[in-house]
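To: structure subgroup
Subject: Chain for Friday's discussion

All,

I'm putting the inputs and outputs inline so they're searchable in the archive.
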Amino acid sequence: MSEAPAPLASLLSEAEVLARVEALAAAIAPRIDDGTVAVCLLTGGIWFAADLMRALARLERHPLFDALWLSSYADARDSTGRIEIRAPLQRSVAGRRVLLIDDVLDSGLSLEAADRMAREAGAAEVLSAVFARKPWPAPRAVVPEFVAWEAPARFLVGYGMDDAGRLRGLPGVGAMD
């Protein structure tokens, strides 16, 4: 028998999430072209990346797509402080612009590792887009060019963000405190 889930406070509805993605796509579209490689950071970035790619397509931008599977949280609520590469890039980014796509910028470790990996693979330019950016007490190594939502310092779930693998599929964003 599993535990009852903690109470969930709604922060963004599905409509609010999608409106923020559309606005972000409008900001990103002038900075990319069809030779750009959009790289989704797995697993949490899948929901945001899918919606962002569709929003960019509506703006006549059709970047190449790839994914990078990194882990620093496992099923914990706090980062382990180190990055595990579970699956590297499959597509060459040499000489190309790369757009990293992630669900949430918390500690910044995953985005920093992805940025470093893209640059080491020869990317001409690396941009990053995150759906949610949480406040952090220290400066992060990578500052995303595109942020859909300045999130509160709460434990977020939904729209790719999870609690030990649960609640990722919620269409909106909630907080568990």
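Points worth raising on Friday:
The chain is about 25% helix and 30% strand.
The chain has a mean pLDDT of 90.

D.
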